[in-house]
Amino acid sequence: MDFLFSYIVLAEIYVLLGLSTNLLVGIAGIFSVSQAAVFGVGAYLVAHFMMAADPLSFIPSMLIAAACCVALNILVTLPSLRVSGDYFVVTSFGIQLLATAVFTNWAQGTGGANGLPGIPPPDLFGWPVETTGRYVLLCTLFAGLGCLAFWLIMRAPFGRLVRAIREDETAVAAAGKNVLRAKVSAAALAGAFAGTAGGLYATFLSFIDPSSFDLDASILLLTMVVVGGARTLAGSVIGPFLLLALPQLLTLVDIPTTIAAAARQLIYGLLLIVFMLFRPQGLAGERL
Amino acid sequence: MLALQLLATGLVTGCALGVVAISFSLVYATTKIFHVAHAGIYTMGGYLAWSMVMYGVPFLIALLVAMVACTAAGALIQNQLYARLERRRATHLVVLIASLGALAVIQNIIAAVYTPNILQFPVNWSSRMMAFGPVRLNYTQVLTIVVSLLAYGATMLFAHRTILGKRIRAVASNPMLAGITRLQPQTVYVYVIAIASALVCLPGVLVPLDLGLQPYNGVTPLLTATIAMIAGGVGSITGAFVLSVGIAVVQNLSLLVMPGEWSIGVTFFIFVIFMLFRPTGLFAAR
Amino acid sequence: MRASFIGAVAFVAGLVLAGLPADAETIRFGGILPLTGPGALIGTAEMRGVQFAVDQANAKGGIRGNQIDVLFEDNQAKPDQSILSFNKLTDLQHVSVIFTGYSGPTLAMAPLATRKKVLLVNAGAQADGLAKASPYLINTLPTIGGEIEVISQWAVSAGKKKAGILFENGAAGMAGRDDYLKSFADAGGSIVAQEASQFGQTDFRPALLKIADAKPDIMLVVITAGLLQMAQEYKQLDLKFTVAGTTFFADPTVIADPAATGFVHTQLQIDAPPDLAAQFKAKYGADMEFFAKQYYNAAQIILITLDKVLADKKSVSGETMHDALFEIRKFQGLIPLEFKTNTASVPMDINVMKDGKDVLLKEVKLQ
Model pTM? Predict the structure, then answer.
């Protein structure tokens, strides 16, 4: 069962990240490609606090990490107030690469490219989460809370405001709404989701290194959101579950071993193209 | 001495990068497509030329044939993928993901056919050395600088002096109006991507001639070139080229003052700050 | 709703199918290696080494009549994919032994290996942390620290007391750099410069130039890819210091290239007999280079161990394999090696490259 469980756990962690990305990219229209960097900061912070000489337990570590990621995400999305559209995309690329450089080279803080091994498993008020089965419960709880929050927000006036900003920012501002505050709030929430996901990821794997938080990871997140369906809750859930399973499903295709891996990546690329051609709104998305 | 030699190698890298940047800039300024698959075309050009040289085709002919093949591949991507997406009114994000898919397809076909090993061009003149005072460069590096500058000049001439060039710039500045005035933006897009693909084939062959071929090695240059293009100001060919050279030189010279592992990080840090204060780029069209 | 429910069922069924055993006659091992992405170069060589050894055994009728099948998973050198692959192989295929490479993924899987008692076999990664990561992780080659100690002592005793380090900005490179910083100082030398190169990049010129500027007697190199390009750039820039490294230097294309003349390196003794290397080349169209040999060797160790487990009429599990391996302890695969701890000790040479050949400089006995 561990295989199915570990798949569910990772998928649920990516659901939180999908929600985070969807909030920014799909809903607020802040096209960020640096969500993996925020995710990484969350992971490293939780690892740091739980492995410190005077260790904190799981919940306080998660709270601190989430708070820091809220602040960080506001900071990294700030440029979107000043530069818009494609310019922000590239600025965001820059932020992502900068973060990767820090994760890789700041050896004292992050273990550098060697990564940080031996992160202890979480402990919920004396209930140790050591088996994969318990992990499923823990992650389902967090992912469920995330989904609930997302659903509530989308129904609230705030959700309509943020969506309106994406459609026409000038009009919203002209209508006397506070665009700045709405954008910052969306960024804050997205940061909290990403930070929480980071903490879960670090404790589940017990080992983290920069390769999980690089540009590829950010792009994978975007792909998950687009394939699942931007701007909807269902999309943020379906995307991660599907895209994490895809490599596993592709191993069903029988190919000579020497070129199997490249061939599978090739099929993945083809699927992406076909999907974008024939269902660009994603499996469960609104029309983009 | 160290500074001079670093400056020279930075110039070489920067010139090659500059051609990637102007080719990407042509595509992006005109079609507004974030054409990531361009990195695949870059890689493909190198591998095609390598195959031909392996079969005894003279280098120059191999380069030209590879350029033709890249042109065709680029046009095919526009015609079969981007044009279809456009007809379906796909958003930028959707086109980007489709382009990523195309990149994965190209890279992995290459990896499956050629293996992921680093391949070297079997030509013996490429590593012969030339000395310019204290600076030592090999033939390939000198050739890279010369060809890149020529490519830059040719692109400028093309964009400003030819009818097609003017038509491209017209479409770039206002696709809607261009459509009404029967400039046929969709046809122009095919031309643009075809031309850009031929251009990007130059560094795609010359850089591996010096440093070897790897199937997944096109993304980093493309990303750096994109940043150069944005910092230079979208639509400015000179801006893209100059900023590419600038970034590569700064990355090389930064070694004088800090450890190399931080040079990429610092470059991007400067870039992010720069974007905050001059978001439209250095050479922005007014 | 109904359609999506059926879709979901089919999807889960597919996931489970993705890992169901095909038939019951064969014994299955796993391999979790980077087969795409920048790590694919080494990962593919490693996969071929294992596959080659297993194919040979199968062609001879298998191990005590049992055919062996190795299921390879692509982890793209990423820890989370490795965990998924690990759980998939152990849960659905019930493999008892998994071949791995690359430090990060191996360190990520090590706690799981301990918990599930699955034998992890690493024959490529040399990060020092691997030595004690898990009782169920065995390394068929020493961590990089041992080799670095040997080459550092040799350098200082040869009068090359000022060194520059060229390291790859990745796990293996940074671990190597740290070992050099320590070992070279312990041997009585000093490090005058250290420069990084980016993983997957083959432009070493800026780093080489900066190291040259510090005027070292010797440059200590820890990179995992692009050595040939580095050698050529070194030659083109007309640099004069000695270049030294570890077993990774033993790449036939590098040794054959005149640019690498004078490169000194430690060499874990591992050599494929010429006819074996020729068969390998005929099968894969590639030379049987270092990692292919190492994984061939590691696969042989596992096959010998399996033979013992079957001879003892025990069931094949990670635990029995682990115990049998330490009972045998001394193996004669491509090389003689011994497991005093989880990490094998292997005899070592110091070689210098000369006229397209690797020439023995000094032999270092098994400690």
Answer: 0.83
